[in-house]
Structures are given as C-alpha cells and as structure tokens.
Write the structure tokens for this entry.
Amino acid sequence: MSDTTTETTMEVNAEARRILAVSISKLYASRSQRGGLRLHRSLLLSLVMRSARDIYHSSVPPAEPMDTSPEEPAELDLESGPQPDETSAELSLTARGGAHREEEGEPAEDKENQSPTRCSRKRRGKTSVAPHFLPSKRARLEPGEERHAALPPPPPVSCRIGPAESLTSLSLNRVIPAC
Amino acid sequence: ADIISTVEFNHTGELLATGDKGGRVVIFQQEIESMPQFRSEYNVYSTFQSHEPEFDYLKSLEIEEKINKIRWLPQKNAAQFLLSTNDKTIKLWKISERDRRPEGYNLKEEDGRYKDPNTITSLRVPVLIPMDLMVEASPRRVFANAHTYHINSISVNSDNETYLSADDLRINLWHLEITDRSFNIVDIKPANMEELTEVITAAEFHPHQCNTFVYSSSKGTIRLCDMRISALCDKHSKLFEEPEDPSNRSFFSEIISSISDVKFSHNGRYMMTRDYLSVKIWDLNMENRPVETYQVHEHLRSKLCSLYENDCIFDKFECCWNGNDSVVMTGSYNNFFRMFDRGQRRDVTLEASRENIKPMQVLKPRKVCVGGKRKKDEISVDSLDFNKKILHTAWHPQDNIIAVATTNNLYIFQDKVN
C-alpha cells in the first residue's frame, strides 16, 4: 500500500515538475512577444508555477541535489538583474524563489556586490544536475567574465522609472505574489 | 494581420464594426431586402487604418497595433462616431458620408492653375451636384499616454460625454472632448509589485446609471463602484464573488476563474461574466453568488493541462446579450458558439464554418460527446480543433441577427424567417 502512495506521490511530483518546466518555457517565450510582457498572463503563469512548486516541494523529496542547490543561486541570480544570457537561471529562480525573495529588498542596489566566483560555481552545479528544467542552453561564462556580467548597464526602465515600473524588463520576481 | 480582434454593433444595429490584429477597422452596413424575405445583408461600408505599430523608446517595447476594443457612440448627427483602442492609445473616429460635391468654381483654369484674380469679373456660387457615395473616416481625438499597462476595455458612459478605459491595474475616466487629461478612478497597483495578486480584466459602465461601473478581476471577482461616493473608486460599493468549489481545485483553478469579459444586461438589472469554462449571470442586488451559471464546454475541464500547454487556457472569450436579455451567447473551440436561452432553459451549440453549410441554410445544432460511444453527427472532445476559436461575438441590439468572428472570417447569422 505504501508503494501505491509513493507512486501517486511520484506521479504528482512528476506532474508538478512538468508543469513547472512548461511554465518556465512560457515565461521565457513571453519575453520575445510583441507588445511586451503581459502582466495578466505573467501573473497567471506565476500562480501556476507557485502551485506546482508547492506541490513539488511538499511531496516526499527524493535525494536530488537540485532541491537544495537553488536556494543560494536564488539570492544571487536576483541581484544580477534581467539579462538575456541569465534568463534561464533567473526563470528557475522565479519558480522557487517566492519566499526567499521577501528578504531581498531592493534588487538593484546589490547588483555590483555579488561575488562572481560564488555565482559561477552555483550556476554550473545547478545546471549540470537538472538541465531538463531549463528551456535552452545558455552561454557559460568563465569566472573572470562573470564580473562583467554582474555589472550590466542597467535597463532604461529601472533607472528612470524605478523598480515599480520595471515589468517590461523581465523583473518577474515582482509579478510573482509573495507567498 | 487579418485576425479579427473585436466585433461590435452600433446602437441601431445598422452598422457593424470589426477590428483586426493589423490595426484596421472594417465597418459593415445593413441592407434589408424587403422582398421576399426581409433578409438582411451586411456589406462593407468603410475600411480604415485605425492604429499603427509604435515603438516605446523609453521601455524598448513595441506597441502592437491590434485593436482590442471598439465602442460606438450613440448617434447625435449625420455622422457616426466610434472609439477604437489598442494596448496604449484610444482614438475617436468620425465616419461621415459624402454624396455631393461642389462644382462651378470660376477660380481655376481648365488645367487647375489659379486664375489671376483681376480677370475674374463675376461671382459664381458653386452648385452641389450628386456624386458616388464616399464614406470617410477621420480621427477626431487621440487619447494617449494615460496607460502604463495594456488597455483591455473601453466603455462609453450613458451621459454621452465621458468614457472609461481600463488596463491591468488602473481605470481612467475621460471626457470625449478633452485629450490631454484623464482622471484615474481605480488604481489597484500595490505599493510593492511583488505583492500583486490580481489584475483588472474588464470594465463597463452601467447602461443607465452614469455614476455606476463594474470591473472584473483575474481572481473571478467583480466590483461595482459608484463614482458619487468618492473621486477614487478603489473601495468598491459591491463585491460579487462566488465561493470556490473545493472539489474542482487543480493547478489551474486560478487561471480558469479569471474573468475574461463582463457585460451589463440591456435593462441594467443583471450582468454577465465569462470565465474559461462558464458564463454566469449576476443579479446586481445579490453579491454572494450568481443567479444563473451555464457551462460552456465542461468537457474541457479534464483537459486543462493540455490546454495549458498549448496556451488555449489563456484565451479570452467574450459574451453578449440579445436585445431583450432573454438569451446569452458566447464562443468556444472548433468554431463552435453557444447560446443559452435563460427563460426556456435551453441551450444550443452551433458551428460557424463554410464546410457543409450553404448560405441561407439553417444551422444544425452540434454536440460534443465526452464518453466512449460517439453518436452519428457528434464530435469527440479529442477531435476538437483548438486553433479554431470563436472569441468575439455580437448580437444586434434589436433583431435576431448575430455576428460571429472566427479567426479570419466574420459570419453573420439571422433568424430563419418563415
């Protein structure tokens, strides 16, 4: 009997993961949509991802490194802001990072202060363990280059209008409701 | 670019406007054949480019030219006026007819050069002579730069002077004559965007009470606001919400409860909302549940996961009332549309398609079968074509004539006469 329960849990778990993967690729695709990010659609996607994530985390966790590794890159990826080559990392963050984001405060101010080596180590680990979660391969950066990546020219929106208006520059962390 | 994105009859039903993804508006005019059958035909009356694609340099964003909504103004003089909107800008268009032109000026030579005024010795008043009918559309007002998010609704007030426009988080009130100013009347943007939990999905003014409007949300609630209470209507006067059925909970419960359209009945006593699977009729005096609920395509409830994957779950279906509020209509997939007769408690599924149907032929009711045994003429859920969706429908304000938009085509159906 415990086998069937485990099986069902595994099924639900697999289903949740699949939905999470589909949602992330949808979020990713919506970046290139004409007309910019649609707030309503992004909100609905984030709600589905949150449900899927909750189910995924609440089911008996199999011994997978990916369960623990996202916690730290969650903090780091947030700070580096929206970048085309960091999208996939950020998107997997947004699937999980709801609760953690609460403590982040203003993302923009810490952009410059991230340790690049810490960044790159975590990212590599996460990606190599669970590539199926991420929509596509993204360019890997060497440790030296990470520093450059951590100091991007800020997108025009966050400079002038302020964080509240930066929906259009893929600050999806704002779209996702706090748990 | 030919994809129809909105359909709207004017107040008499004589004109039918459609907007498309390419920013064009096409207006059809009704012509009634009195013999032999009082049949109506709608022929193209005017076509014009309402909106062009734009680029927001500040946000590095393209602004789509797709027409999201068209609303007609009640007619006040010989010309017709309509409001059309894309994601960011609303425009007031004047559509006027010209069937005469002046002739007989003696100011120009044959080749068009102006004559030397000294050579003109007589005053000749030009005469208006008939010409082929020309329909001209000219933009009279442009209401721009008032919306940060994407406009989803516009609604003309019964006072005929003001109208509202709604985006995901805000509703603005405009005066039709004033383009450089609008009043914000609803603002649901949270101080911290991370706390965003719902957005505005549709808004409409009450058909008779110029102080009342409603707006629906992505959470399945409708708020009724009274503009007399305060300038900012963030606090609702009434909140219409039906408690969720816990047995129907799924990953996608939130998405399917998002309201895609809200429409007042013509008599102003009811309002109808459309969510992904159903149509609900609310009595304005009862907030805790709808008075009627109609399932549009319940057979899709078990398919929500695939509909999520193919994006169909995000489709925004509209709904409409007939002239006397006895029947409501909405679209579905496979080019099916559904009508619910409230009084007779009957519903019918019809198909808008050129296959198997000739003009003037009576439409055959369709049926979707869910179980294993498919009867003849039924279609199984798995054979439904989800690319063929009817999102926009409109009902003539007085007669039983309906306009149904499939992806690229507009179908006009009317009651069988005799």
